[in-house]
Amino acid sequence: MFLKLIFFHNVNVGDAMESGKPGPVQVVLVQKEQHSFELEEKALASILLQDHIRDLDVVVVSVAGAFRKGKSFILDFMLRYLYSQKEGGHSNWLGDPEEPLTGFSWRGGSDPETTGIQIWSDVFTVEKPGGKKVAVILMDTQGAFDSQSTVKDCATIFALSTMTSSVQIYNLSQNIQEDDLQQLQLFTEYGRLAMDEISQKPFQNLNVVSIENLNFVRSHFYRCFLKSFRNCFSDIAGEFKEQLQALIPYVLNPSKLMEKEINGSKVTCRGLLEYFKAYIKIYQGEDLPHPKSMLQATAEANNLAAAASAKDIYYNSMEKVCGGEKPYMSPDILEEKHCEFRQLALDQFKKTKKMGGKDFSFRYQQELEAEIKELYENFCRHNGSKNVFSTLRTPAVLFTVIVILYIASGLTGFIGLEIVAQLFNCMVGLLLIALLTWGYIRYSGQYRELGGAIDFCAAYVLEQVSSHIGNSTQAAVRDAVVGRPPMDKKTQ
């Protein structure tokens, strides 16, 4: 588990603001009465699985701390900075002093504005020095220690945000207290177990950021915000502006962005979804999970993320050769490509650093192989549907047999075998009825069992003819190889 933790001293702010579009999306919902947590998986997946960012390594900047201390407020300035960089970047990223603050919702009062965990709907693509692109996500968390939250609620939200973020800003309104550090106890114990498991240090850097002359700044804030704050940057004390201009670029500077890492491997947006799903499960009980459970959940998510990445490699590779509007491919060639891409996906899964050991990972490898098999069967069906003859196989077989029987009827009638000719005519009539019935079934969707029986009979006839032709061809080739011409009836 790799995390950069920043302690940031902020002050309380007031008045409400309305978030616009794009905006914050609830990804972890708190059931206050039951004190339980629910993952909004569909909402989270809609953000993390976007095609242009799903495979990018992710940087998750999270702000946590006590309620009503300005967590959402500081995130709004991060949004200003990121949108400024997205538009080309300029030194005055703070914008017009009279421009209202927009973004994550915040307000004054005794009730928390943010419940659970929210992330910003826009995922920012940032290019780091060297040309590598990463996905930057901003995450806001429910304020801790409000009147409605239990100690478990606070610890759960803090742990979830910490375990899923790469940069955690711990927002405080005063000097660091013992209670603040106690919130880290469960997570640091998990880190100790992780260190024993993977023989690496569990965390990367701990940075403590404070504002000088805090009391002076705080007094300005009380005067500016509590009575006359107009939701504009111009109402903020000058000392605090200076600290913002130093802190925000420090955290979000492309050269300093820290990707999320677990077990020494960087986590993609798609992988982050798996970690959210795994972590939320262990916090559903009445008690806080044991650190070993947290480590187990991380190992499971780690393997699931590796399997999902390998599965995508197989799917994307197959999609390029036979998916969508690609022309029909020979089944033999399709199987050859399947074997090639299957091995490519398995090699990717095996070489990815994973937690839990080989025996633990083997189960996920088996599940990956089963999913690849299922995907291959779907690709086979999709490819087969492009074969015109396959689609029209039944009517083609019926029509061909009707023509052959009609010609045979004429010939036998010409040489005087009327009984045989009439028999052929009866068969032609029955096959015409079968052909018309098949067409009606396909058009109406009724009597599907009868339609299936007609398809089966046509397929059986085609299989017998193909087998006979194949055997005859093999015999002819074999005779040609040994130097003997095919024997005719006179020779026999």
Q: Encode the helix/strand succession as letters.
A: EEEHEHEEEHEHHEHHEEHHHHHHHH
Quaternary status: single chain
Low-confidence stretches: 9-20, 106-114, 212-230
Count the strands? 11
Q: Helical content, roughly?
A: 40-55%
Keywords: Endoplasmic reticulum, GTP-binding, Hydrolase, Magnesium, Membrane, Nucleotide-binding, Transmembrane, Transmembrane helix
Organism: Marmota marmota marmota (Alpine marmot)
GO biological process, one term: endoplasmic reticulum tubular network membrane organization
Pfam families: GBP, GBP_C
Brief characterization of the structure:
This protein has 492 residues and is of the alpha/beta class. The protein contains 15 helices and 11 strands. Helix 5 packs across helix 9 (291-322) and helix 8 (269-282) packs antiparallel against helix 9.
Tell me about this structure.
- This protein has 492 residues and is an alpha/beta fold.
- It is built from 15 helices and eleven strands.
- Strands 1, 2, 3, 4, 5, 6, 7, 8 and 9 form a nine-stranded mixed beta sheet that branches. A two-stranded antiparallel ribbon has the order 10-11.
- Helix 2 packs across helix 7, helix 5 (185-198) packs across helix 9 and helix 8 (269-282) packs antiparallel against helix 9.
- The protein is elongated, with a radius of gyration of 34 Å.
- Residues 9-20, 106-114 and 212-230 have low confidence and may be disordered.
What distinguishing features does this structure have?
11 strands, single chain, 15 helices, two-stranded antiparallel sheet, 12% strand, nine-stranded mixed β-sheet, 492 residues, alpha/beta
